[in-house]
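Run: sequence + methionine sulfoxide -> complex structure.
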Amino acid sequence: MAENIQIHGNTKEEKYESLLSQVTALVQGETDQIANMANICAALKHGMDFFWVGFYLVKGEQLVLGPFQGPVACTRINFGKGVCGTAWKNKTTVIVDDVNQFPGHIACSALSKSEIVLPFFGKEDNVIGVLDIDSDNFSTFDHTDEIYLTRILTLIH
Ligand code: SME
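>> structure
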C-alpha cells in the first residue's frame, strides 16, 4: 500500500485524475465501508488541501457524523436541514459558493466559506450517506468537483 498520496498536475482535473488512481488502489480489495471512507477522507483532505472532508451516514431520521478529516464537527443533522440534509432530501449534489447565502446552513466552523455535498446511494436507490467537503475560500467547488467526487463515491459499495 502506498504510504502517501502524491498529487501531480496543475489543474483541478489533473489533480483529481492523479488522486483517483491512487484512491482506487487504496480501497480496492478492502470491503469495509468505514475503513474505505476513512482513507478517502484522508486522501481528499491532504491530497486536495481541503479545509474539512467527511461523511455523514443516514441513521433513522438523521445524518450522523462518520469518518472525517479536519476540525471537530457537529454530530447530527436532521433530514432536510443544512446543506447536508438538503442533499439527502433532494437526492442530489448541492454546491454552495458562499455558505452565508445558504438559508439554514449549519456552521460547524466559522472558517468554512464554501461547500459541496454529494449523496450516495444503497441498492434500492436510497440515500445511505453524504460526502461533505468544506473550503475556507469562497466558490471553491464546481461541476468538475462533482464529476470526480461522484467517481470516488462509486468506490464505496
Ligand atoms: N455545513 C454543513 C454541516 C456540516 S459541516 O460543514 C462539517 C451543513 O450545512 O449541512
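>> summary
The chain has a mean pLDDT of 95. The longest strand covers residues 127-135.
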